[in-house]
Amino acid sequence: MQITTQADKLKSSIICVSYKNWQQWLTLSILIVMLTVADKAIAADTPPFNFESSDKIHVIKTIPQTPAKGAAEYFTGNVEVSRLFPAGDSLQMSGGYVTFEAAARTAWHTHPQGQMLIITAGKGRVQQWQGAVIEVKQGDVVWFPAEVKHWHGAAPDSSMTHIALANIVDGKSVQWMEKVTDQQYNE
Asked: What count of other Cβ atoms lies within 10 Å of the Cβ of residue 105?
């Protein structure tokens, strides 16, 4: 299949990918980037796809959708979230297009099978529990391993937009925790 062949060629260019599932993540990451070029998200009533049902290409058509404001219990500052695609029978994954205004950020959280971020605009920060704050910028790809407590958000002086991908396990893709303090954010 041509997509897999392209993923094989690109394998060495993205270093923050799970060794166990790198082809799935890379293939889906490329698909998601292509789908979001026009800053769109699919409608909530788009039917799920069974990606393993055939050897044919599947295209999820996008239509404009108003982003939702990030819930105050999970985010600090102004954040907009757009769902990119629905989970299907064989695609147990969530995808979001998330924009953080300057200094906005998530609460601490984990993902049962990890999370990949593709930074599409601006500058941001990421941190795992008891680790150093790491600066990220447009073009960076970030991998958070399974069950690693972390947060991510915009830099103090810049907005940041990313595509977030995480597998769904038992109906959940994230476990939210306490908010990131200003002291933690500014470390």
From this structure: 25
